[in-house]
Amino acid sequence: MKASSIQKVSDKVSAKYSKLSGKHPKVTEQSPGRFLLVYSFADELPGGKAIQQQLRVVADEEGNISKMSVSRG
Fold first, then answer.
1. Would you list the DSSP string of the chain?
2. What range does the domain containing 24 cover?
3. Overall average pLDDT of the 38-61 stretch
4. Total domains present in the chain
5. pLDDT interval class at 43 (50, 70, 90)
6. Which of 73, 68, 60, 52 minimizes the C-alpha distance to 17?
7. Does residue 72 carry a pLDDT above 90?
């Protein structure tokens, strides 16, 4: 996946999830022309604890997002 396509997806993701601004994803190819980008981050909870989360994005070579989901915990 080209760097410009990754940047295009990252811009769309950071517009929806501002805490991911400036984060770089782990990119893997699922099939020819289809890529999985995984953003990992932690949110602080009341009481000083943190919860680890992942945002998974499926996109094509041009940076068009087809699916986005967030896992918690």
1. --HHHHHHHHHHHHHH-GGGTT---EEEEEETTEEEEEEEEEEE-TTS-EEEEEEEEEEETT--EEEEEEEE-
2. 3-72
3. 93
4. 1
5. confident
6. 68
7. no
